[in-house]
């Protein structure tokens, strides 16, 4: 199998079908632009299963995703997209860099409505404006920007409701999109690596901040998310 590319936490592999690729989840965990880096055995397996579960739930609600099916414990078959080099960040509760950058909100303060931010995918993931997005043609028009924001907000609402049903608050999440036949399609993954999730009763952290802030065992936190969602990890 030919490796198309390898990132910090995933490997993309070609298949015999030019329209389908394999997404393999690694056990690497990184923070602070890879200044902190470790291997957590089994982490890739957990993220693979959680992301597959979330993608299937979103498909059921009418969100077009790249997910096709699980291929193994740490691999899934996905549609090959022309990826857009942006991360779409949706924030519901003030946390992380958002608090430091703005300086007007305390950590844990619930936002009156979701705030959407865009970052450019490179080594430092800088924030970019909608004008810059259009200038560099990452999205083709203001209409496409509004479309991607609308999809992101719909995903956010669906996941807020899903997580509330299992006693957790979706603090924020990062989404990536690509194009297929001129349609915007949700790509990459949705897992504890790409969201902040706190329990409703005690604000226990069930995401990568467990590792980033040295708050406990990352694998246990990720397995707790899987358990809450009813996902069985062998």
TrEMBL record:
Catalytic reaction annotation: 5-amino-1-(5-phospho-D-ribosyl)imidazole-4-carboxylate + L-aspartate + ATP = (2S)-2-[5-amino-1-(5-phospho-beta-D-ribosyl)imidazole-4-carboxamido]succinate + ADP + phosphate + 2 H(+)
Pathway given in the UniProt record: Purine metabolism; IMP biosynthesis via de novo pathway; 5-amino-1-(5-phospho-D-ribosyl)imidazole-4-carboxamide from 5-amino-1-(5-phospho-D-ribosyl)imidazole-4-carboxylate: step 1/2
Residues spanning the membrane: none
Organism: Wolbachia pipientis
Family (UniProt): Belongs to the SAICAR synthetase family.
Name recorded for this polypeptide: Phosphoribosylaminoimidazole-succinocarboxamide synthase
Enzyme class: ligase
Record-listed E.C. numbers: 6.3.2.6
InterPro entries the record matches: SAICAR_synt/ADE2_N, SAICAR_synt_PurC, SAICAR_synth, SAICAR_synthetase, SAICAR_synthetase_CS
Domain SAICAR synthetase/ADE2 N-terminal per the UniProt entry, residue ranges: 4-227
Biological processes per GO annotation: 'de novo' IMP biosynthetic process; cobalamin biosynthetic process
Pfam families attached to this UniProt entry: SAICAR_synt (PF01259)
Keyword flag ATP-binding: yes
Top-level taxon of origin: Bacteria
UniProt cross-references to HAMAP family, sorted A to Z: SAICAR_synth
Lineage: Bacteria, Pseudomonadati, Pseudomonadota, Alphaproteobacteria, Rickettsiales
